[in-house]
Amino acid sequence: MTDKLDDRRNMSQSYLADRAKFVRLETLRLTRIAGAGHYSSTFSCAELLAVLYYAHLRIDPANPQWPDRDRFVLSKGHAAIGLYPVLADLGFYPPSKLDDFTRLGSAFGDHPDMKKIPGIDFSSGSLGHGLSVALGMALAGRVAKRDYRVYCMLGDGELNEGQVWEAAMAAGHYKLQGLVGIVDRNQLSIDGPTEKVMSVEPLEDRFRAFGWEVHRIDGHDLAAVMETFSGLKPAGEGKPQMIIADTIKGKGVKYMELSLDWHVGNLVGADYDDAWSEIEAGLQPRVEENA
Amino acid sequence: MMGAVDNIGQDQSTLFRGNETELRLKDEKSVRGTPAKSMPAFILGEELADLAESDPRIVVATADLANSSRTRDFANRHPDRFIDFGIAERNMITAAAGMASCGLVPYVATFASFAGILAAEAIKTDCAYPRMKVRVLGHHSGISMGFYGTSHHSTEDIGMMRTIADLTIVCAADANQLRAILRASVDHPGAMYIRLGRGRDAEVYSEVPSDFALGKASTLREGTDLTIIATGSQVHASLAAADRLAGEGITVRVIDMHTIKPLDVDVIRTAARETKAILTVEEHNIIGGLGSAVAEVLVEEARIPFRRHGVMDEFSLIGPPAALYAHYRLDADGVTAVARELLDVRS
Predict the structure, then answer these.
(1) Fewer Cβ close by (within 10 Å): the C or N end of chain A?
(2) Which residues on A lie below 8 Å from B81 (Cβ)?
């Protein structure tokens, strides 16, 4: 796919479900190459990544530096293993490049690097910086009178970092409607449940108090994710927009879901095969899960 | 979008021209009896505003210090390209990196103690590593803030910044050199840390030096008995010390090492060959700063009497700046005395 991707493409829900599945399967495959990787926090945002990249972002894989493109900052940089295959799939670079993942001198490490990888709009890794980067990009758009939007995906744990709230405050102050935050609210940081380690709720109230328009959705419900993204207001003066996506860490592999053991790991043998077949089967509708 | 752009300007106009601000400034003036224009030497905002006339990429930001840094002069002329981030230095510097990634050239100014230390990770991770053209301006560096205290003294920033790869580090000796530095910085690749004094710096250069080049030290005075390598505010004190020593028949070479990184290694090697001793002088801890940088060259290149002079690895006292400079022997008398000690010459 090398044609310019237009804004608000009309992708079917089943196609996007397939792409989310692709993100999870590639995460399994690449982690096996590297010997370690962040499964569970990548699985939690698979649907969000799929909708953003395949249905929503205004980007051009043939021209990664296109000045009018939408920007995406993966502030939770440890989910890069899920983003790399998407960029390859869209044509930013050949998929075979990913076979070097984490090898000596590879462009592809555990966190995304804008100097080495076409399609990465900003490097990340140290948590808490991403929203500031995105804020700067949105301010630059205003100064240069460009109408692109800037999306920033945050982990819920990184909301503990004070710099996130410095950025949230500034975005509200400058009424940056072109700035869209997405919190992958997967409930767990490394040491345990976020509400036990360092609580971040009430998230909606907090962002609203900082001057944001807030949407709260089920981040695995493709229809809801698609509808929320397509309903975003265009860049301009108003309020920055925050999507709090409730997700499940490790979503797609039952023994990983809400488990503290799979933040980083390496699957071998039957565990790997089980994970593969579970993901292949696809996410079951929420109703059945609860039955 | 036009409305949005205009709004930045409106916000700033309100901030800068609001009644409250004016009243407060007026009050301070009447209480202290000081002239309104208390920092005539600080040309930061004015020079950047001039540069921005012909370069639409230039934006300027501060963290609630538009007055202290005189970036207010920029805000008044280019309100749509000035952003006040409030008291949030890390956010400012990281956001500047975001702006740079979109093609702008941001100059972000705050006290050196916050720019170079509080926000050090933002400089490393978001500016230097991805080679963003962010210019971090650390003003009121060293001990120039006097009685404001340890939190406001910055005698570590050069050391912190030196260990960051791909970061250019420059120290301005006076306002005229600062103009040259700013002009040279616009198209310089990668990120820069520019260290400034308090804006009341004594004049070293009577006009904007036409031969200024980043990375190429300026030899201001020739001599063979001693070389003083100084940076920033200490260039002036070192020149004065050289004058005094000349009266005693000691000839001193004075080098303004304005660029700390990349360091002009050749000028140090030559001085080690042609003069009898080397003294570094800086308004900074002797650990990690100019002295360390020169020592690293000398220990590899030459055997020569050498001494680092600066703040001797201690948190500096509070007090009026002039008293502090005297205490730490960072004024002309002090530098002269240290030079004599190095040369083992009695006064």
Answers:
(1) C
(2) 143
